[in-house]
Amino acid sequence: MNNRLEEYLIEKGLFITAISSILIILLIITFIFIEGFPAIESYGVLNFVFGSTWAPLKGEFGVLTMIVGTLGITFLALALAVPLSLLCAIFMAEIAPSSMRRILKPVIETLAAIPSVVYGFFGLIVLVPLMREQFGGTGFSMLTASVILMVMILPTIISVSEDALRSIPYEYKEASLALGATQWQTIKNVIFPAAIPGVITGIILGMGRAIGETLAVIMVAGNVTQFPSSVLDPVRALTSNIAIEMGYATGMHYNALFGTAIVLFFMIIFLLVLANYFHYKKKVVIGGGYL
Amino acid sequence: MVNPGSSHESIQIAGSTSVQPVAEKLAQEYMNSHPDVRINVQGGGSGLGIRSTQQGIIEIGTSSKKLNDNESKDLKQYIIGKEGIVVGVNKENTVDDLTINQIRDIFSGKISNWKEVGGSNQEIHVIVREEGSGTRTAFEDIVMDEEDIRPESIVQSSTEMVKQAVKQDPQAIGFVSLAHLGDDVKALMVGGIAPTEHSVSKGTYLIQRPFIFLVKGEPESTLKEFIRWIYSNEGQEVIRSEKIVPFIANVSDDS
Q1: How near does any CA of chain B get to the CA of A140, in Å?
Q2: How far, rounded to the nearest angstrom, does the alpha carbon of residue A35 sit from its chain's CA centroid?
Q3: Contact at CB, B130 and A245, closer than 8 angstroms
Q4: CA distance, residue A138 to nearest chain B CA (Å)
Q5: Cα gap A68→A151, rounded to integer Å
Q6: In this predicted model, what pLDDT tens digit does every residue of A34-92 receive, in sequence order?
Q7: Is B20 on the interface with A (CB under 8 A)?
Q8: Does A130 contact chain B (CB < 8 Å)?
Q9: Beta-carbon contacts of residue B136 (< 8 Å; ≥ 6 apart)
Q10: Region A21-290: CATH code
Q11: Cβ <8 Å between B132 and A218
């Protein structure tokens, strides 16, 4: 009887813990929708999402330039970070001697522990002048923000990918080497393909961090609400827009900032669904992924 | 001194959101030393402050812009302090002095190269604060004169970041409030006058705005005490701590 009661309590306790985290997220989402909906409704969904003028004091709330800004910064950062971090992960998992790995791993993990304001300040003081001298313009640009984000998401992608590579059963490697494949052939044709689902998880996590990062981006992206004509033009991300203007916003402007959050919410959902689709697809095709 | 059950004297303050922080600080300090007085501070904008005071809804209205003749009718104005805004450039920049019109043209985009105002042949990089920021609003009110700030200006979300952005870019120009000016940037003279507490207080430095308390008719009893206290050393110290140039000279007007 006592055991059954204990089982019951533990079971319900775990259930409540699990459900409460979902409830909290639902509460936040509900709140964002309640606050943001009036702006989107009165300005019109299409005008809001596809409008290219953001002038809150004149009642213009088009966020398209910022959608472009967020996507541009994020994908540019991924394009820079993914090759670098995958090669790094392969090196650490397969090639580096364990003594070197013992140094590399904590160093890379330290990168993840640096607060984003430090990255942002570093970007403002060091990277922005460098960009200005190299490419002209103001130095505040999509590329500058992407380079900072690249450094910020490297540790995530490296750590998760390395774990994925290391968790491939040793038999795979033995079998490949026994067939006469070189180490590189083994990595390229056996280990890496088998680890792809885990690698994609790492990229998804990195992308999540890149989309959500606010402070560092505000400091180096220039925050201009115009369409960039090149990667060297300043842009404003959706998250930056909320953080920059929330302090003063009242009335419809305030609602429009929550509307910005709704747009961001749908973008993230869409990207996550897309990424999970590839994750799932690769798992089926390869058939060897245990991840 | 507080007798339980005794009624509080109360003062309602409303108006300019720029004046609101300093008014709140003044109210708080005053209530600390005068527990029998209740002061309630609200925003709403300078226009609302002026109207509500004229209609007698509130005791003190606040405004961060000069009143025209029609607005100032029946109202007694107490300038509690002045906020100066400094236009700053990089220390390597050879330009030292601009007129208000030149500054307006630079920020609106009509002037886009430093050589047009006597500097080197380089593009001007305009750095501004975000829409809604008090400093930006003040700058727009005083300098821009209905013209829009060029949309491709770089936006930085704090005074410190504006200063850092100007500090690291020889072609940059930005604005910060006088109280936050450090050694990072070179403060431009406006029409030959350098921005200092003195020149702002005297009114010779042009990019400035007054913080005004408005009272309908002659202030009496509690209200009079409060206004007198604002111009005391204690009150002026509070104003200075809120980064506003105090206006001690005005004390004589009160008595």
Answers
A1: 8
A2: 25
A3: yes
A4: 6
A5: 21
A6: 999 999 999 999 999 999 999 888 888 999 999 999 999 999 999 999 999 999 999 99
A7: no
A8: no
A9: B128, B129, B130, B149, B175
A10: 1.10.3720.10
A11: no
Query: Does the pLDDT value for residue A281 go beyond 80?
Result: no
Mutate to test the interface with A, among B113, B157, B159 (most CBs of A within 10 A): B157
Q: Is B144 part of the contact surface with chain A (CB cutoff 8 Å)?
A: no
B133 touching chain A per CB within 8 A: yes
Contact call for residues B76 and B215 (beta carbons, < 8 A): yes
- Exposed / middle / buried, residue B25 (Cβ in 10 Å: 0-12, 13-18, 19+): middle
User: Would you state the pLDDT for residue B248?
Assistant: 60
> Which amino acid, one-letter code, is at A264?
L
Using the Cβ of B172 and the Cβ atoms of chain A, whether some distance falls under 8 Å is answered with yes
- B152 at interface of A, judged by CB pairs closer than 8 A: yes
Backbone angles phi, psi at B157, to 5 degrees: -95, 10
Whether the Cβ atoms of residue B124 and residue B87 lie closer than 8 Å to each other: no
3-state secondary structure chain A: CHHHHHHHHHHHHHHHHHHHHHHHHHHHHHHHHHHHHHHHHHHCHHHHHHCCCEEHHHCEECCHHHHHHHHHHHHHHHHHHHHHHHHHHHHHHHHCCHHHHHHHHHHHHHHHHCCHHHHHHHHHHHHHHHHHHHHCCCCCCHHHHHHHHHHHHHHHHHHHHHHHHHCCCHHHHHHHHHCCCCHHHHHHHHHHHHHHHHHHHHHHHHHHHHHHCCHHHHHHHECCCCCCCCCCCCECCHHHHHHHHCCCCCHHHHHHHHHHHHHHHHHHHHHHHHHHHHHHHHHHHHCCCCC
ipTM for the whole complex? 0.78
Beta carbons of A128 and B165 less than 8 Å apart: yes
Which chain A residues are Cβ-neighbours of B156 within 8 angstroms? 218-219, 223
Q: What is the Cα–Cα distance from A110 to A101, expressed in whole angstroms?
A: 14
* Contact assignment for A234 to B154 by CB distance below 8 Å: yes
What is the distance between the alpha carbons of residues A39 and A49, in angstroms, rounded to a whole number? 11
